[in-house]
Request: fold
Amino acid sequence: MTLFNISLRNARRQAGDYLVYFVTVVLSAALIHAFNGLVFSQELLALSSFMESLPVFIIMTSILVICVMGWLIHYVTSFLLSRRSRELGTYILIGLENNQVARLFFLENLIAGAAALLLGLPLGGMIFQMMRAVILSLFHAPYTFSLALSPRALGLTFVYFTVIYLMALSRSRKRIRKLKIHDLIYFEKKNEKAAVKQGRNRRKLFLAAILSGIAGTFLLLTRNMPLIILGTACVVFFLYGFFLCFSSGVPAYFEKRPGKKYVSNTLLVFRGLSAKMTTMGLTMAAISLLFTVTLVSEGTGMLFSTLFQNRVEGSTCFDIFIGTEALLTNANTAASGSSESEPDNSAAEFSAGAASFPHSIPNPETRLESAAPEFRPYLEYIRDEIPLLASMQYDIYQGENLQVTDYINENEEYYTYYNYDPLMAYSDYAALRKMLGYSEALLEPGHYIVHCMPYLGSLMKSYEQPVTAGGTQLQPGGVYTEHFTQKLWDGNGRGFILVVPDVCLRFRPVSHKIYGAMALRPLTLEQDDRLSAIHEQQSGGKTGLTYYSTGSSTLMTRSSLARECASMSACTIFPLYYLALILTMASATILTVQQLDESARYRRQFGLLGKLGMDRAEMTRALHRQLAIYYAMPALPPLLISLPLLWTMAHAFEPGTIDGPGQLMGILGTAVGLFFLIYFVYILMAVSSLKKNVLAE
Reply:
């Protein structure tokens, strides 16, 4: 039998004995190939100019994935070397040279890796099709199934796996070449050396690690970058200190409480667990750290998804929005000091015209004369190229004080953007509600209406103070919370607006002017680009990601915002979940491989206990309890660290992004649920296999 045949036989045996590891490598190859497909997909990159960043994000994530997969393969390879060292030593004993044995071990692992890659490539193609369908749906683009393969994606996947395996196997190959027969035969009896010696100092370090973890978690909750960096260092120290010193902390606990040591199967469970921590403390600490990164990645992805969805839904209620700082105000008409002076009603006339036929296509040409000069270049293009359902120009006015703003600041998270409470004329508000398809809102004489973002709704409903506008005192009226373009500095107020009778605004200065339009159909990319070019000419500079201008005017279209948010979702959420999935699978694989390899020892141990009188039900409970604690230990500290961190991160978003604690708890619960869904699959595989092999009749 040749070395290749022996390697092939051993590779088959390895895939069977460590099926969990082999399946994880196959899935990892599939995910790497699928995401490489996104990097080279010209179809997806052409969806939006923002998608040009997608390859950069995926490649950066892939570098981390390569490191994690390299660590996994190196760890399992070293583990297999220690478990099969006696077999490899026997090969040398019967006449093979160290180089031949090293080549044999190298080839069998390389064959297993090649088989995983070959199985992973078609699976990765299927995953790529699913991700392609999701991304196209984000852009509302049609999806058609295609089996086209990207040679560059295949080549890059092959390069990644070649680098991972060559780096992981080179060290084991060098080690076999140097080891003598005696060292190989007794290599499996060597355990991981304790990084911290037993004794009082180790117990002190265990306590210091616990305190460091508590302090680090609180530091992570601050919004100060130096403190966050310090908190991260404290958390890392906690994880390593906790697991390295756990095996001394447990005996110390039971020494002071001898009565608890012999309750039920406690001694059996914690004795085995303590021995396991002694041999793999560093590994458990590394896995716990990876689980922390996993939960943060998944939670961040969920938060970003909510943020992008909120921006699409809440930033503008119009298909086309243009806001500009007022160059002239209604106060100009009052300059003569005559109380009989009338305000500039061109905006009101424009509004009335738009509101009179919200379901017909207006004729923009007849409105150019009454439109504000700032809007005319846009309206000329819209008239010729974009059919509308309805459109409207109106003004936002400056209130007399900060009465309502101060109330909100005192009771809710809020960013103050004006030095006055913004006001809107009721006639404009009624016309806007009709144009947007909202129900009618009646304003009783002597009252005012509050229209605010949903997160301020309950707060404003409890506000019972009168406000003054144009010298008239107004009592509280209704509170409405439909989407109303209240996330922009020059929108319908920032977070809220007070709707007052038109007569109260006779002499109030204008804050800014707004043009809003509802299109007959979604704007195309070419139409968005043309409007953006007009805006650049008007503002004298380039626009931002969503056409936000740094000058005195803003252009936003619903279609451009949706494209940007879809692009940001693809560029951030997909890589975050890619990384989280790989981290979870790699870490859970190492934990499971360690447990499955203990089958023979557990079988001997429980066989002896059975002879001593322990029944099968008691042994099953002991095994379940030991596995539960074993798998919970590296997962619980990340929960205690990541959930407060994600909670703080969510509150760093713009107020109103997260609609209350209930939504935030749902987001965090979903992130934790996704993590444990994958984790439980590996746990169930370990439990099923161990019960079958250990507790067999």
Notes: DSSP finds 23 helices and nine strands in the chain.
